[in-house]
User: Fold this.
Amino acid sequence: MFDRVRNLQSHQITSRLSLLFLHLTPILRFLTNFSNPFSPSYPKGSPTPVSSIQLYKTPQKSFNFADKMATEMANTDPEGIDGVRMTWNAWPRTKVEASKCVIPIAASISPIRAHPLIFANPYAPLRCKTCSAVLNPFCRVDFSALIWICPFCFQRNHFPHHFSGISETNVPAELYPQYTTIEYALPNHDVHHTLPPPVYIFVLDTCMIEEELGFAKSALQQALEFLPENALVGFVSFGTQVQVHELGYSDMSKVYVFRGSKEMTKDQVLDQLGLGGGFAGGRRPGGAPVPGQAFQKGPVQPNSGVTRFLLPASEGAYIIHSLLEELGTDQWPVAPGNRSLRCTGVALSVAAGLLGACLPGTGARIVALVGGPCTEGPGSIISKDLSDPVRSHKDLDKDAAPYFRKAVQFYEELSKQMVSQGHVLDLFASALDQVGVAEMKVIIERTGGLVVLAESFGHSVFKDSFKRVFEKGEESLGLAHNGTLDIICSKDIKIQGIIGPCTSLDKKGPAVASTVIGQGNTTSWKLCGLDKDTCLTVFFDISSSDKDPSGNANPQLYIQTITSYQSVDGQSKLRVTTITRRWVESAVVSEELMQGFDQETAAVVMARLTSYKMEMEEAFDATRWIDRNLIRLCSKFGDYRKDDPTSFSLNPSFSLFPQFMFNLRRSQFVQVFNNSPDETAYFRMMLNRENITNATVMIQPSLISYSFNSLPSPALLDVASISADRILLLDSYFSVVVFHGMTIAQWRNNGYQNQPEHQAFAQLLQAPHDDAELIIRDRFPVPRLVVCDQHGSQARFLLAKLNPSATYNNEVAAGMDVIFTDDVNLQVFFEHLQRLAVQSS
Assistant:
């Protein structure tokens, strides 16, 4: 059992090392040159291009450092160049056989994940005239007739005239077998060749104490310094009422005020702002054209208020700085025993309406800084009376939260408006009380927005995370806008839906499954906001009910994802990923099927599906559902004699999965006790959008041990790992804990690390902090750093994640820590699992 834990810990550390290879991008690019006039970026020294018929042969080639690095990266980066991981890498042929696999057939995809070996094409993609699939390495090509055959619909397509020079020794990059993922820079159709600038509307809550408002204003001022000069910025403040600041009116400070208690339609907002029937043709009084009009797609948009409410950062930053200097806390009187009247819903609705009038169809973000619950107008989550507590999970279960459903419905309608406009809502919530993240979850997820939940605007979790959003270069999040995702599948594969930050576009087709999971009933999704770490989970269904009697079925299945998006610099791009897997014909459990099982991906998919079911299905017993599926999986794929638990064993491809499920049962995604609905919504949103490696850490944290006796090494996620002369570093994704054993803490308190003869101790103390900084630096949102000592109050952050192998009701060795819980430990869990898995049905 413990060997499995140790193996997993080692794997998690190894997967982190893969990030180091990303810094070798300049070396890899230096090693490539461009020689082919047809495809300007072919690497010199690469193997002779091969047609799809030769794809599975290994061409002979000379040693190449770039190839060696690619191989090493593949070994340490399980997602590879495609950014795809699947629960099953060999698929059963029929629907019945798929249902027997227990774990759903699903893929985790990262639509725009950065990778140094992704090739960029400077021309538009070549598409199949029937199914719109893009030319890829799996297409069969007739070079003499200049025809390519689509692997999805088998349509014969002619190459256009400018492809006439292709041959078996001169092929476009799309047909190179290593370029299963390729990116296209789409041409800019605007006659002025101007790229749309990034757009930000900052929405600031003023119903806070002076100190908190000062922290928020300071963070906003710092963010303005990071924005590119051409970025358009706007500013909205709100308390009991909403104030829209007209930045373009330079003579004096001009503000449009909206009542916070009244729900307003988009048209009412535009009329009050003077955008309802104003400057026809996109011109303001005086006949001057409106800046920004050139980059709007389609016909010129009337009533443009760009110059009034949105200014380039080079001008607007100074004006917003001045407004922030004068801005104070909300002056609306608050009676004793009452909460502040805060109209968050109206403020977001007004900001969305303003963006929709000024810049429809252009990537723009509403960045909301909220310091408390909404108590006024639409979107309210609680009354103004302080004696009424904010809703809890128990209230939601009993339907005793009178504001919840109405607030969710309001934000759902607002999300439809923002998605149609292509705009994003980012929420930065910092308060000791709940602010309504649970109600706003629908609009954040459907617009692909960022969310950060912290205790204070002065806390490092907020300050460092907020700064990361606007940073440039290697530290940037790689924010992109206005994306769409299309998925094309082989025959017999249906798409049930996607769990993650996206919205269904209701594009029907033969690949749409009858059952829906998440955003379904479509083969196309809107991604208003996405970044280089955005991850989506696609659920598939097998439509075939029986095997092909002719025996001519294709042994390979194909899936293509096509993601179009607008990069942060305004460039329109299209990324195409085409993957293939093998069908498994046999109805019995085959070795190929078992070897193709990815237990980390399966654990994350189960966690996401469990969270989804807990939100969508009433009275859903998550723990029982997880246990039943785990027992079925072990009965199906385990090796045992009937009714003999001692004979039970699992294939190495499945050996870690029960441990993942044990930790999932105890995680914050399933056990909502002691978490508020806001915290649970926050945790689940992060689980749904992060990659498999990070999501695995959320489910089962990694633990590293530091001591004088050995180098830093993975430790068992067990209370037995606690020792007085050891330091532990726990990474649970949302928090990073540096835990000092009792003896280490005493030495530190006595100042031994400051004495020259104890430099080794000083280095031992510093090592986990350095590693913690590395983890924090590469993560968004920035995790909470907890430094604690054995038997200290904050040691609970570590103890809550450890396997309770030693508790108050069993005998333990002298001096060993115990956990005060009635939860079963991993050993007991395994014993019960073995007994139930081998039972005769």
Q: What stands out?
A: The first helix runs from residue 2 to 21. Residues 753 and 766 are 10 Å apart (CA to CA). The radius of gyration is 28 Å.
